[in-house]
């Protein structure tokens, strides 16, 4: 680290939400040195959640959902150029255009990208799309505006379900294919997954669970339909591939850092680990690409694809980059996210997948308004509300205090005790999409095998 923590050179690789908020926080905390932001997209930082919501419904244009600036960052921007590596000895970021960006401290905030359809020839068919960037959203809106006879959504995680919702709101026929047993099951478990499936079908979605798309078919280079593992076929002019995200870590392969498909491992203070598990003091990580331990969840290494986590973690990383050791602080924010789909406002606090039991503490699936509380080993670990978000603040406090599961009478709606049931969190390998919260250690209901060498 530079002798003066408020001086020197800081490079931020990743010019999206986490990178921008970290840069702003660095200036806010008095960093007066040279600041460089590097991003592979040519666009200024923009907001991604509206892309699958307001943008698809025509309420905003894809290239207008910019991120508001909290303050000026007085930075050198290197947009539209990809980082290809890090020289940890010479302390330089290596760029695809041959450029070199020196640093005293480095923040890695490269996020994720959409997982593509795995068959290149089929992925290249006109009409096969993904949704991650503003350019992706603009291309998808153009296709939906053209009024396709049917849209195929491959994967029923949050992004896939929000796209299906937008299609139905537009009056378009939509088929959703999900390898797992229900929509959203990878994030919320079986109870709310079954509820989500009922909601989608009630809105006219042709929902097909427990099946996979075995082939995308085309004619003359254009998508014409799809074949399924159960032997059925459909015709479709548009297919949106929602198979989860890939963390952008390949560029770090020769960096000596603990970087891989699950993200860049770091400590609770956002300091990156090297490949031997030794914490670095000049390389930090924030946002979707980070993989970090959380004491509220038995120090599971979490990888989160959440807006709020990116903002909070960026703030912690920036603080620790310019603070001496005793003044550094950990990233302990409880994960939270939200989704709007099929007339439902779904909000979550905690980690629903870190659970073995669930209880509907308020409302019911039949009412379409509820709060589900999750527990693991007798402790509350998460709560999810459906059209009942005001209750979540109470459950957030219970999670932070390690309150016992099931929750006491003060957390229920007065209908008397309700039985808990298994949360039915599936093995991620059974899904066609990735969870938005990845437990990158072992899942709580599965043993950890240790291989020993004599």
UniProtKB/TrEMBL annotation:
This protein's name: Pyridine nucleotide-disulfide oxidoreductase
Gene Ontology molecular function: oxidoreductase activity, acting on NAD(P)H
Keyword entries, A-Z: FAD, Flavoprotein, Oxidoreductase
SUPFAM superfamilies: FAD/NAD(P)-binding domain (SSF51905), FAD/NAD-linked reductases, dimerisation (C-terminal) domain (SSF55424)
Taxonomy, superkingdom: Bacteria
Residue intervals of the FAD/NAD(P)-binding domain: 9-314
Necessary cofactors: FAD
Keyword Oxidoreductase assigned: yes
Chain positions covered by the region annotation Disordered: 406-442
Biased composition (Low complexity): 410-424
Domain Reductase C-terminal: 337-407
GO cellular component: cytoplasm
Species of provenance: Streptomyces inusitatus
């Amino acid at each position: 680290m530079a002798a003066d923590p408020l001086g020197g050179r800081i490079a931020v690789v990743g010019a999206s939400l986490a990178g921008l908020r970290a840069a702003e926080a660095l200036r806010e905390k008095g960093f007066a040195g040279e600041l460089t932001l590097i991003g592979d997209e040519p666009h200024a930082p923009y907001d991604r959640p509206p892309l699958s919501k307001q943008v698809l419904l025509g309420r905003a244009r894809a290239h207008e959902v910019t991120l508001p600036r909290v303050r000026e960052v007085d930075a050198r921007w290197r947009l539209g150029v990809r980082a290809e590596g890090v020289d940890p000895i010479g302390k330089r970021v290596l760029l695809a255009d041959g450029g070199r960006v020196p640093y005293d401290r480095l923040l890695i905030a490269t996020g994720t990208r959409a997982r593509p359809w795995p068959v290149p020839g089929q992925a290249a068919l006109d009409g096969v799309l993904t949704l991650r960037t503003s350019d992706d959203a603009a291309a998808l809106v153009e296709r939906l505006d053209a009024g396709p006879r049917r849209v195929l959504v491959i994967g029923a995680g949050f992004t896939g379900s929000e796209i299906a919702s937008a299609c139905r709101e537009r009056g378009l026929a939509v088929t959703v294919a999900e390898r797992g047993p229900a929509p959203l099951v990878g994030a919320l478990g079986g109870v709310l997954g079954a509820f989500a499936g009922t909601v989608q079908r009630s809105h006219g979605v042709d929902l097909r669970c427990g099946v996979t798309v075995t082939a995308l078919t085309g004619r003359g280079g254009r998508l014409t339909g799809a074949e399924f593992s159960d032997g059925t076929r459909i015709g479709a002019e548009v297919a949106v591939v929602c198979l989860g995200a890939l963390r952008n870590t390949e560029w770090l392969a020769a960096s000596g850092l603990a970087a891989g498909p699950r993200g860049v491992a770091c400590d609770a203070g956002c300091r990156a680990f090297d490949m031997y598990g030794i914490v670095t003091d000049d390389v930090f990580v924030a946002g979707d690409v980070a993989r970090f331990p959380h004491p509220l969840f038995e120090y599971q290494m979490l990888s989160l694809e959440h807006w709020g986590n990116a903002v909070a973690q960026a703030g912690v990383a920036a603080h620790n980059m310019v603070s001496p050791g005793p003044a550094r602080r950990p990233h302990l924010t409880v994960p939270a996210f939200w989704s709007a789909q099929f007339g439902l406002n779904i909000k979550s606090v905690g980690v629903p997948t870190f659970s073995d039991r669930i209880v509907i503490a308020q409302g019911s699936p039949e009412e379409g308004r509820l709060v589900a509380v999750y527990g693991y080993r007798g402790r509350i670990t998460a709560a999810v509300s459906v059209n009942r978000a005001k209750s979540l603040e109470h459950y957030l406090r219970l999670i932070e205090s390690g309150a016992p599961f099931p929750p006491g009478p003060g957390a229920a709606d007065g209908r008397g005790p309700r039985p808990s049931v298994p949360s039915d969190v599936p093995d991620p390998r059974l899904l066609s999409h990735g969870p938005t919260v990845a437990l990158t250690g072992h899942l709580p209901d599965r043993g950890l095998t240790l291989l020993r060498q004599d």
